[in-house]
Each structure stands twice: as C-alpha cells, then as structure tokens.
Amino acid sequence: MKKILSNSMLTLLLLLVFVPAFALTADEMKNIEEQQGMYTGAEKQGIPLGELNELKGRSAADITKGFPSDKDKSLTEPPGNKARIFMKAEPGDGLISLSWDIKGLQQKPGDPPLKYILFYGTESGSYDKKLDVGNVRDYKLRGLKNHQVYYIKIQGSTSTQVKQETDEAEAKAVDLVLFSKEMTAIPLPTEEQGSQLEKSFARNVTTLQDNLEADPFKRDLKQFGYDFFKNSLSTGILTDNLPVGGDYIIGPGDSLRIDLWGSVQARYDATVDRNGEISLPKVGTVKVWGISYAQAKDVINKAISRYFKGYELNVTLGRLRTIQVFVVGEVESPGTYSVSSLATVINALSQAGGPSLNGSLRTIRLLRGGKVVQEIDLYDMLLGGDRSKDLRLENGDTIFVPVIGSVAAVAGEVKRPGIYELNGTTNLVQILQLAGGIAASGDTGRLQVERIEGNSARIVLDYEPKAGQMEETLAKVTIHDRDMIKVFPVFKALRHVVGLKGNVARPGEYQYKDGMRVTDIIPSYTALLPDSYLESAEISRLVSPDFHKETLSINLRKAMEGDQKENILLQEQDTIRVFSRGEMEEKPVVSINGQVLNPGTYDYYQRMTVRDLVTAAGSLKRNAYLDNAELTRIDVVHGKANSIRVDINLKKAMAGDPEQNIQLQPDDVLIVRGVVEWLDATDRFVTLKGEVRFPGIYSITKGEKLDSVISRAGGFTDKAYLKGAKFTRKSVQESQQKRMDEILSRSEQDIMKKQGELASLAASKEELEATKASLEGLMKGLDKLKLVKAEGRVVVRLVPLNELQKSPYDLEMMGGDILDVPQTPNVVNVMGQVYNPTTFVLTPGSNIASYLKNAGGPTRDAEEDEMYIIKADGSVDSRQQATFGIHWDEVSKSWTFGNFMSKTLDPGDTLVVPQKLERTAWLREIKDITTILSQVALTAATVFIGLK
C-alpha cells in the first residue's frame, strides 16, 4: 500500500510541474491575538503558550481552533473581574531579571497558587523557549546574547472555584489561565548599561495620580574590593620597569652597570654573586651585599681609586634580582612565587590572583623569619589610597591571608552598595561611610538593620533618627556579623506639584503654591495647542483622607476670561487635562465619490467649497463628466432628516464660479459621474495569438464582439485548429483564483484535521503509516499547486468566421482578453495508471480502447470506471456521463450511441486513467479531499492524477 501511495504522489507532483495551471495560495494566516501569541518550541503540548505546538506554516483556522471561544471564555479569565499579570524586565549582562505580580485576581482561601510558565524568543508573538518556573514571582534568564532583542511573556494557570450563574448557584471548578503583555528587553554588557546614578536620572517622574508601585528592594550585592585583583598578571609585570630609589638594598643577583671616563675609558656589567661581591678587572672583588643603592657608588669608587686617578664614575642598576616568596591562606592560587626584588605585598598577592571571596582583605599578615612584621588592611588603599603599610618584600617572606572576618552588607540608596568586611568594633555611621554614605535619594528618616540574633532567628531593627541628630544616633548602633543595613529610597512620587497634560504646549509638572488657580498654569492662549476645546477641561483631584480620585469639569474659556467661578483654586497633586476638539466633538466630514483620483471621506472645514473638496481628492480623472455632478445634502427640519440633491456644473465650479462653486456643509456627498462609454487603457485592448492572419494587440470599442476582432485580424488561417482554441479573461482569472484559494485553504485545514485523527481511524500500524504517507503527499501536492497561477480560461467552441456571429460563443470582448488559436496538433495523450503514459499520433478511426491498448492497458491500480477525457478546448468528458452507452454530443447537437471505450479522440485530447485504492476506513475519510482537489485542478485545465 505504501508503494501505491508513493507512486500516486510522485505522479501528482510530476504532472503539476510541467502542466500549466492556476496557483492556489491559501488565505493569509490570521494574526494570533496579542494577548497570547504562540509557542513554537520543541516541547509538544497543545494550545498557544503552553499547549499549541508545531504551528508554523499552518492555516489560521487550525491555529485559532485551539484558542478559547466566547463560550469557553471562563477557561482563560476569571469571572467577575479582569485579572492581569504585570511583568517587569530589567536587562543585565547576558541576562534579564524578571519580576511579576497579579492584579485583580480574587482567590478564596484554599485555592491553589498559580503556576507560571515563562515563554521567550527572538520574534514577537513566536516563542521558541519555554521554562516552567513554578509559583515564584521572579526569575533570571541567563545565557542570553547581548544586543539581541528578546520577547517575553508569562502565563499563569491554576484551578479555582467559580460561582456559576445558574438557579442553583453552585460553585464549579474551572481552569484559570492568565497572560501578561509581551515585553521586550535587550541584554547589554556591563560597560554599556549605565551606572545606577545614570539610570536614576533616566527614570520618568511620577505623581500620586499615577499608578504607583513600589520597586523591589535590590539585595544583589557584591563583596567589596575583590575586583581589584582581576588584572593581577599585568600588575606583577610592571614592577620590573619601576624606577629604583636610593634606599634599595643590593643583594645577590642584582646587576650593576659601571661607566668610567677620563684617564680610564671602560664600561663594566657586574652581577652580584652569591657572596654578595662584584668582580672588576685590575681592581678585584668589591663587596656590595647589604648596602643601599645610594651607597654603592661610594663603595665602588673607593675600591677603584686605589688603582686609578683622574677619572669620573657612574653606577646604575641593570637587571634586578628575583626573590622567592610564599603566598598562603585564602588566596585564589596559593603557592611559591618568584617576584622582582622591588615587589610589595600587593604585587605578590596580585600574582596569586588575590584573596579568594572567603579570604580577608583587612587582616593580611606579612611574616619574615617566623615573625609578623606587618599587618595590612587593604581597605586603607582601596578607600583612601594609603599604601604606607605595603612593605617591599624580601627573599623568603611569607604572606598569609586568613579567613574572612565579620561582614556586613549595605544595600539600597547608598553610593557604593556592597558587602564589607568589619575590622574591630564598627558602628552604623562607619559602615555607611565605607559604602560612600547615603545617597541624596536615600530616606534618612528610617534605616533598617536585618540581624541574625543568637544564631537562632532573624530580626529587624528600625532606626528613625531625629533631624540634626542622625550621626549622633547612628554612632550608638554597633554592627554585628552578617548584619544587612537597608537604606530605603525616598517616596518616588513628586510632592508640591500640579500636573498639566493634553492639548497643551508644555505638558508636565509645575510647582504648587498656595492660592494657585487654573490661570496660573494656563496664563494665556499661547499655552494651548491649536484646536483646543475650551468649553470643558478636566481636573483630577485626590481627596483626603484616603486620597480617592475625583474629577471636576470647568469651562476653560470662561476661566481664562477671568470668571472666578471657573478659575478655581488648585490643590496639591491636581492634574489639569485640556482636550482637543477631535476628542470632544464629532469631527465634521464631507465625501466625494466617482471619477476622482482619491475618492473617499475628508475633513470638513468652515467655508469649504466644491473646488476645495475636488482638490483634496487629488483632482478629476480624464473621463470625469464636467457638465453635471450631483451634490447630496442632509437637511434636518423639525427633527426629521430630508435629502436634498443639487446639480453642479463642475467645469464652472473648478473655474471659481460662485454660483456653482458653492460652500459645503457637514456630511455633504459629491458624486462625479464618468463620460458615457469611456474605456480605460486596460479595458481598450485585446490580444489575438496563433493561427490568425494578423496576430497582435487590437483596440476594441464598447460592445464589440469576438467575430469583429477576428475579422479585423484577417480571419483564421488554413492551419487553425478551432477546437483547441484557448480563450482567457482577466476577470475570470481573478474569480477563479479567489475560489481556488478558498478551496485550497479549506482542504489544507481538512488534511491537518485528519492528521490529528490518525490514531482513531487506522485499524493497524500499517494503515496508520499509509495514512500518514498519503496525507503528507497531499500536503506536498497543495504546496505545488500554490506555485502556479490561475489562467482564467473560458471554454469556447469556435466555428468558422461566417458562422461565429450566430454562435453563443461570439462573446462581447473585454479589456485584457486573449484568444490563442493553435495549429492542429495531430496527437493525443494517454496519462495516468497505464503501463506507458505517452503521446500518440492521431489515427483516423481509432477509439479510446485502441489508444489504451497501445499504452499497454490499465495497470492493476487503475480505476477504469472513472476514466475521463480532457478535451482540447478545456472541457471534460467522463465515463460516468456515458450511462448505458448513450451520450449527448455537444458539437453535433445529437445523441450518440456506444460505450465510452468506443469514442474517438480529437487532436489534442488527453485520456486520463485515475488510480484505485483499497476502500479502507482511513481512505474513506480523505476521499472527499482528493476528489475536491481533482475537480479544482481540472477546472483550471490541470491534469491531476491523485487519489480518487
């Protein structure tokens, strides 16, 4: 069976490739509701955002059938309220931090919490990634690509008890599914994100009138100071090139360059050996170990002066010696390191990668000879630049980094939030100083300390220092290990403010002052934009004590004219909204139809005339009838609308004649008629091809018929094959294309529906695979049909010219018509389920049976009872029409006798033998689809050898 299906599909595709036909393009897929979108990832589950899978390329009906209908709306939104998921997205370096909340959801005690699914992707409305995040309300998407736009949506779902509107008013459990709006976010590298200070200035200001929502308190902090050691490698290399001070102690391995001039010309590069000596020619050895660089010149000069006189001397340091030190404890890479003799403790720590996050920065010890010679607090350098305790290392020194000590975190509105290591007793003022102090946006009225008390519980301590006593109060608070100090932001809503918005020149916030009135904000008409509605303005006000919102309406025109009743006193947080006329009044319009370039509806303005309306419509067309146009006007008298018609001479109106170029009124409609029997350029020409004496393009007049055009072309040639004439019309092509698009779209939906029902229709695994193969083949056939265009062919039966005038096929010609008259082909075609589908030379007297025999006869898979002939003129003659051997011959207008097989073929005819398949359950389900497709293809003169 699989082989039969494969052969059938292959035959179909081959025929569709070389036989000219129409194109079937399915209806464009409908836009999925923005509220949901669709998930196109690998996980297969059912409807959009959690349940719709494998949607790309499918029809709109198939996609939207998974969405809840109006009847099932209770499945997606809770009855009685409009719940929404509100989401925030904050991009980071390769990540996006998400948080969300539910508004308007009424859940009863005992209802299960919502489970959230996160969908995201790089295309709007199409998400290829899915994460089940459980019932949390924040999440970080990691591993993202910087500078890539990501589209994100949240779905929340649960089951809830809903009271149904029935007589019994019983509670019923329904599935609740909520969606957030789609949000976009672009991850950026840290250096491109901007500082917290830059972000704070970039935020939009708000007032109490806005929908305020507290920003989540940021607890993501980093340990202070450890970033310093990221560039440890380059820090270690730089010490070799540092200038050497006079206090540098010379030791074995150092290189000295000695230059002599005067009575002695010489240059010596001497390296201090293990004995601490250098060797000079004629002078011998000079001991330099343990002396400073400043003393070296005198010592060497004293040794040389014993042998030479009258010279000058200069001593410089060349390559410095390396020393070996030990870096141990809580460092990234503990071990033994060879460093320059100029290296300090910090240089050696940098080479070791610095202290680990578990290592102390404040109690680093330098040991020499088994004794601590210095304890180093790196905060002195990191916070104040003090390196006085950063001693120069000596060979054999040990640097020990102990485990980190007590720590405290400072979060919120400080200049440098972070986790800081404590060194001794530290109060709240000192820890805030480590964090750079409280920022201007920090609320000093309340500071909070989270503390672990007695290794058993977390507690919260609030400190509310009085004005002028902040430092004194906070200095008394001692910080404990693992404390978190939280500095909250000031309330983000502006105070002492009134707002102005709408149709104004300078919308925004203004300082509120006692006694302020409306005209203090809108002092003159220059503060308004054009076309403002002055009869009404709206003031939104917050009323104490609960600050509920109320609205007041005033007459802005009277207020600006000095009417104190309308020019009311303002209160803090008031917002004035000025409307435009378009918002408050129905906009008057006028319309123009007929022979103008851009017919349609246009805005009405006072003193607008007929000529103004024609000009707005892009002027008149060439075929416009200027002597008379019709203006329709609505006149309302005593509550009743009457239609009035006025005849306009457009020629005079366009010339400015005041009697014809009358002023318009709202809702006027001007109709511009066209010149009688005018034909546009596209409607004036037809094409004759093939066997006419003078083929080419011909102009036509209104009502001219086919015989007239053929006569002008010189008539038919002697080789013309009238039965095979092909007549196409543009209007027919458009209607065919539309009809075929609808059929193809419907068939595509049916095929996909059958694909979803495979398991229930097939009786066995073999039938299931065969059904799947056949449906896939049909889908490929549909794709092929989409690649060709409808021809718009009309079946005509031409007769000699002298008889055509009396024939019903003497059609009235229309612009774009094409008549193609071929030569007599003298061949017939046999296609489909025969052993040798091919083309045969027409043999006089041969019938269908003889041609079928010459093609090897029908195969075992042929459906002989459904054979048909595609005539050269495009009509179809099937075996089903030859009932009981009697058949009506349309050409001879008479009944003919004899069965289908005894019929003769005309030149250019095609005999089609369709395929037969077993009548299994699944075949019965798809038979209707293939029959429709076959009929569609035949309608457009396409040979479709498919499943029948």
Describe this structure in words.
It is a single chain. The chain has 22 helices and 47 strands. It has 948 residues and is α+β, with helices and mostly antiparallel strands. The strands form 12 sheets. Strands 4, 6, 8, 9 and 10 form a 5-stranded antiparallel sheet that branches. A 5-stranded mixed sheet has the order 17-16-20-18-19, covered by helices on one side. A 5-stranded mixed sheet has the order 22-21-25-23-24. Strand 8 (150-163) and strand 9 (171-179) form a beta hairpin. Helix 1 packs parallel to helix 19 (765-785), helix 17 (730-756) packs antiparallel against helix 19 and helix 17 (730-756) packs antiparallel against helix 22.
Unreliable spans are 1-36, 42-81, 162-171, 918-922, 940-948
Structural class designation: alpha+beta
**Inertia-based shape:** extended
The average pLDDT value, as a whole number, equals: 80
Compute the number of strand runs.
Answer: 47
Helix content: 10-25%
Percent of residues in beta strands? 25-35%
Distance between the termini: 15 Å
| Alpha plus pi helix count | 22
Largest sheet: 5 strands, antiparallel
Computed over alpha carbons, the radius of gyration is: 47 Å
Short description:
The chain is 20% helix and 29% strand.
How are the secondary structure elements laid out?
Blueprint: H1 2-18, E1 38-39, H2 60-64, E2 84-91, E3 96-103, E4 115-121, E5 126-127, E6 129-134, E7 138-141, E8 150-163, E9 171-179, E10 183-185, H3 190-193, H4 196-202, H5 232-237, E11 255-262, E12 266-271, E13 277-280, E14 284-287, H6 293-304, E15 311-317, E16 322-329, E17 335-340, H7 345-351, E18 364-368, E19 371-376, H8 378-384, E20 398-401, E21 407-412, E22 418-421, H9 428-434, E23 442-453, E24 457-463, H10 470-474, E25 483-489, E26 497-502, E27 508-511, H11 518-521, E28 532-543, E29 548-554, H12 556-560, E30 575-580, H13 581-584, E31 589-594, E32 600-603, H14 610-616, E33 624-637, E34 640-648, H15 650-654, E35 669-674, E36 685-690, E37 696-699, H16 706-712, E38 726-728, H17 730-756, H18 758-761, H19 765-785, E39 793-794, H20 801-804, E40 818-821, E41 827-832, E42 838-841, H21 848-854, E43 868-870, E44 876-878, E45 886-889, E46 894-897, E47 910-913, H22 921-939
Parallel strand pairs: 1-5, 16-20, 21-25, 26-30, 31-35, 36-40, 41-47
Antiparallel strand pairs: 2-3, 3-7, 4-6, 4-8, 8-9, 8-10, 11-12, 11-15, 13-14, 16-17, 18-19, 18-20, 21-22, 23-24, 23-25, 26-27, 28-29, 28-30, 31-32, 33-34, 33-35, 36-37, 38-39, 38-40, 41-42, 43-44, 43-47, 45-46
